[in-house]
Amino acid sequence: MLAKLSTLTVSHFENGKNNLRLSSIINILGVLGMNDYRYIEFSTLHPKSDDSRMIISFIGYDKNKKEITFAISYEAIQDHFHNTLPPVKAFIENKERVYHEARKKYLANQFEKDGTILIGTNDL
N or C: the chain end with fewer CB closer than 10 Å? Predict the structure, then answer.
């Protein structure tokens, strides 16, 4: 069997039994092509401010080390973070929250036409 599980375990899964181990469920979902192994690791490089576009851009890398550009609008930073700070400083102080939203948009394939992922004020 592809999932390397007993017929009884697969039967329990099919019948909705709730006494399955998480590893068994993950194996079954993997065989069905239903596991999502995508992830993003964010660069430690300093984010860049682009005053002409009114965004802060930052870089992430997928599991294949492909570079993906992310951005958050100045408006989103001002609306949701300490708006008396310069945008880059506010970004840095709140980067974990920004990264969380960036990951969600990446997993939902919410790319802009230019290939970036943009976080706006309505996303937070």
Answer: N
What are the percentages of helix, strand and coil residues in the chain, rounded to 5?
A: 40, 20, 45
pLDDT tens sequence across 65-115: 999 999 999 999 999 997 789 999 999 999 999 999 999 999 999 999 999
Tokens 């590893």 locate to 23
Whether 124 and 80 have beta carbons less than 8 Å apart is answered as yes
Distances (CA, A) of 116 to 68, 72, 86, 109: 7, 10, 23, 10
CB atoms within 10 A of CB 97: 14
The proportion of the chain whose per-residue pLDDT surpasses 90, expressed as a percent, equals 61
The number of C-alpha atoms within 13 Å of 111 and in the hemisphere containing its C-beta is: 8
What one-character DSSP code corresponds to residue 79? H
Between the two ends of the chain, the Cα-to-Cα distance in Å is 44
Q: Which domains does the chain have, with CATH numbers?
A: 1-35 (no CATH), 41-123 (3.30.160.140)
